[in-house]
Specification:
single chain; mainly alpha; two-stranded parallel ribbon
């Protein structure tokens, strides 16, 4: 691939990414579901934009969502023990009944998040 092709590919990737971010921001994309996501992709949750994603009932033990945008995502009844949510944005997220024991929660933003019956034993904040 020559320089011109690389530049064109880079511009296209940047455009597609910007379009996705825009569609999420205006609410055109409101929910994503990752039901077939394999645990080997866990570290790829870092610094991701995952607005409105349904993680309910999932076993996400020791996964990492460091500095991810998780607004309005559903983690209800999920196992999040040992998870890193360092610097994550969880505004309006549903964490009802989630197990957050021994998770890293420092610098995470939980404005209007539902933490009803969430387990926070040993969580670090």
């Amino acid at each position: 691939m020559n320089f011109r092709q690389q530049k064109t590919s880079q511009i296209l990737v940047n455009f597609v990414f910007s379009l996705i971010v825009y569609l999420i921001t205006i609410g055109a994309i409101t929910a994503l579901t990752f039901t077939n996501l394999t645990p080997t992709l866990a570290d790829e949750y870092n610094k991701q934009i995952l607005v409105g994603v349904d993680f309910s009932g999932r076993d996400l033990t020791d996964d990492s969502f460091t500095k991810s945008i998780l607004r309005k995502s559903d983690f209800s009844n999920s196992n999040l023990s040992g998870v890193s949510l360092f610097g994550a944005h969880l505004e309006g997220a549903n964490l009802a009944g989630a197990n957050l024991s021994y998770s890293t929660l420092d610098n995470a933003i939980f404005n209007k998040a539902n933490l009803t019956n969430a387990i926070l034993e040993g969580a670090f904040a």
